[in-house]
Description:
Elements: E1 4-14, E2 20-24, E3 35-36, E4 39-41, H1 48-60, E5 64-77, E6 80-91, E7 105-109, H2 124-134
Parallel strand pairs: 1-6
Antiparallel strand pairs: 1-4, 2-3, 2-7, 5-6
Amino acid sequence: MQNIKITAVNVAIIDKSKKVLIAKRPADKPMPNKWEFPGGKLEKNETLHECGVREIKEEMDLDVELDKYLGYEELVFENKDFTLHLFTANLKDHNQAFKLHEHTHGEWVFIDELINYDFPAFDIPFISKLRDILC
């Protein structure tokens, strides 16, 4: 059986105090109760930038501008091959408040606080790259 190939974009939204928005996955979804940078799957005829902006609007009801590309990780999860891209982003309006549509919790945290949250292993290289940018 051939693995399904999926491209996804996650976004590390950084506010003006240099906090990063993280979100907790629901218990009934893959990687239950893990924390992540919000985002999702690339749709047909969509660029990575368009995907990141759309997913953040759909999941968090925030308008963002993508900033730096931090790279990608290749992983296999539940017989699916993923290419997961990560971008940083800024809020278009710093008075926006996030609304959760896909996650059970969301928090603005400083980069050094991320060690207190249970992230999937594939996010660790992204966290390291974020630390380099923010510190």
